[in-house]
Predict the structure of Surfeit locus protein 4.
Amino acid sequence: FGYTSLISGVDRLEFLRVTKQYLPHLARLCLISTFLEDGIRMWFQWNEQKDYIEATWGCGYFLATCFVLLNLTGQLGGCVLILSRHFVQYACFGLFGIIALQTVAYSILWDIKFLMRNLALGGGLLLLLAESRSEGKSMFAGVPSMGESSPKQYMQLGGRVLLVLMFMTLLHFDPSFFSILQNMVGTALIILVAIGFKTKLAALTLVIWLLAINIYFNAFWAVPAYKPMHDFLKYDFFQTTSVIGGLLLVVALGPGGVSMDEKKKEW
């Protein structure tokens, strides 16, 4: 019995070591997927995107072209920097700017569902920014350290809270038993992630749930490319994949200092 327990413990430690080594890489790849897809789409739909911005805002050919070029280079360049682990903080700030720019340009500000999903995407970037922040070098060098209340830990808190906005867009308000059960379980899980209690388990459960929903409802590959629904589902699929990447960062790195899991260690 003792030997079996020892082997089980060794296997568990090996699994945790491998997970800690590779999971952050998978999380970053998922997180930047929507920016990568959108940047590539800007290249292949250059004229369509330019014409849309020019017609919607009446800004003229030059500014519309600059908008598309900025989105293309900003997103693809940011993805390359993040994957190569060079200037990650600058890349994150650049992608934050892209999110803000697109929110205004495509009138997402007035669509609550898309706005909440964009905020959730920003939460994933905030977690990536916290993950890339080294212990020795602080981008808030002028701010005095306050122990547990460091900027990095507040970034993790803000990232967790913003991430759960994605799941609020998935709640269905109808009287069926399955919808009520799904809403209750989903609400409980997003609260656990937001407050940082049993965070890794709750985040992993949300990853599995969101992955299943994403594959089932956003199967853009099953819709012919010439149909408008194809692009809509493709956009939704990769944006959801990016939120999955943010949750995987929570699974890999934990909730941070501003969480109930961390406070339990002091009790």
Remarks:
- The longest helix spans residues 2-31.
- The radius of gyration is 20 Å.
- Residues 73 and 125 are 18 Å apart (CA to CA).
- Confidence is low (pLDDT under 50) at residues 134-148.
